[in-house]
Every structure is written in C-alpha cells, then in structure tokens.
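Q: Structure tokens for this one, please.
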Amino acid sequence: MGPVEYTPRPHRVVVLALDGLLPFELGIPHRIFGRPKDARGRLLYEVVTCSVRPPGPVETDADFAIMVEHGPEALATADTVIVPASYELGPVFEEGVLTDELAAALDRVRPGTRLASICTGVYVLAAAGFLDGRPATTHWADAEHLQRLFPQIKVDPDVLFVDDGDVLTSAGVAAGIDLCLHMVRRDHGTAVANDVARRTVVPPHRDGGQAQYIARPVPDPQQATTTGARAWALGRLHEPLQLRDMAEREAMSVRTFTRRFREEVGVSPGRWLTQQRVERARHLLESSGLSVDRIARDAGFGTAQSMRQHLQAALGVTPTAYRRTFRTTDTTPPDTTH
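A: Here is the predicted structure, written as tokens:
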C-alpha cells in the first residue's frame, strides 16, 4: 500500500453570535471565508457560528432571530475567533465589563488563537483584556467612547482596520469585509483574496480610511476632485512621481490638492502612493518570475533595498520571504538580493 496523502485541515473560523447582532455583519465572515479554495478545489476555511449559550435562537437587531447550532464549546476548536457587532452589549459597552456568561465563553478560547472584531465587537475583546496596550479601531462614531472606556488601548479612529498580528479590529459594518479580505490575503496571498473579492463583487482593497465616510458639508458640485490625479498616478507607479505633478493634473495648488486628497481618500498623497506601490509589488512577487530588482523598479521603489524596507514596514516580511510564501508557480528565479 502506498503512502497516505496528508490532507491539511481547513483553518477553522468561529464567529461568536451575541444577542442584538447585526445580520449583515454576521454574514461577512461566512461570505468571505466560505469561498477560498486550494488548487485541488478544497476549502481553505471552515466557518462555524456559535453562541454563548447552548444551541438555540439568538436575537438580532432586525425583526427575526437566527438559530445557532453550536454553543460556546465551539470556541475551543477555533483557529480564528471573530466577534461581530451587537447593539445589546449592556455592561460590556457601558462599563467595559464582561458578563459572567460571556467571560465563561471566552475562557474557552485557546492561547494563540487569532482574534478579530467587526465594528463594536471590539468592546468584547477590549473588556476581555485582549487589547491592553495594543492599537485598535471601531466605527468612527464610537471611537471616542471606546478610548474613554479603555484608556489602555491605542484607538485609531481613521483607519478601516488594524492588524496587530494575532488581534485584528475593524471599523463599522462594511469595513468588516475589508478586514476579512485582508486576513485571506495575509493567509493565502493577493491572488486568492482578489478572487474572493471578485466573486463577492467588492473592491479587493479600499483606499484610505474612515475619514472619507464621516459626514461633512456637501461640496459644490463644480468643485474639482482628485480622482483624475489618482488614476493618472496608478498608470505611472514605476515613475518618480512628485506631489506637485499630481496637483497640476487637477489644476490645484499643492496645499489645496493635499487637503482635498485627505478629505476624499483619508490619507496623504504620499502614504497613498506607498500603499499602491506595495500592492503592485505584492502582485508581481506572487504572479511573475521577475527578479526582486526588476519588481522594485516596476513598482516605483527604485531599488530592492527601498522595496524591502517598505514591505517590512507594511507586511513584516522581506520580498523574498513573501514570494516564498505566496508564489503561485514554481518558476521563481534565484534571488541574491537578501
């Protein structure tokens, strides 16, 4: 008899459904993690929903309840635990204290399990002490309250999500999609995440942060935007782009362009360009056999050393390590630029 082929176990994502949950947010992990497959068509994730109580109904903020078939014991089997938002967190939201029921459920989470929250689900992670001394985010409308309630947390109200390694948090509602796609991208690379995004009919990566979604006075319809400059820059990432060049595309002064850009995108033009170049480099590292030096030039970093510094800052890995993890073919050329 020949050797038995090893079949990797799917990464288990357990979603904690709390009373008062938002059905839309509960569905995000199932939609995003329920799609990715490996080259043989095997699912890369298994998604399970559980409650803090024995199997049964869980109330939502809508006019229906959902039937959850798993109790808190499912948390002990998780590789990743995700806590979506709830409008009925009670003392967790008001006082920063877990209920006995919720504390007992979270005690089942194994050490080393990856933790994530969507929107106000962050209050659960914070009250459990998982975010002490860490950066985090939540819906922009709750960021100030979260910071007051948990001063030991470094709350960033401007971003769509925060990745702090084994603990990740997202802003409100649809930012949960951004977070889950990011986790798929981190686990299995850009190609897999982009395929999931395409099938879900959402952008694989949204620019900027929450600032662009906060209500402001309605601008003059005739007021110029930075859309054209961004499209122009995306087609020239390999070139040494200057801020004044982008401003000139929109016939604005550098100062006006920078202010307008931040209002529309949520980050500075320089940071946005770096983000786009990192994404271009990731794509080329995964999908091409180009050398690291060539990719650095094509992505606009100029040198392999510069690209290495930016990827280390953004992803925590070198270009060579990233390619080794996420390369989609076996034709990677030797790389001597460590």
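A few notes: The longest helix spans residues 269-287. The two ends are 44 Å apart (CA to CA).
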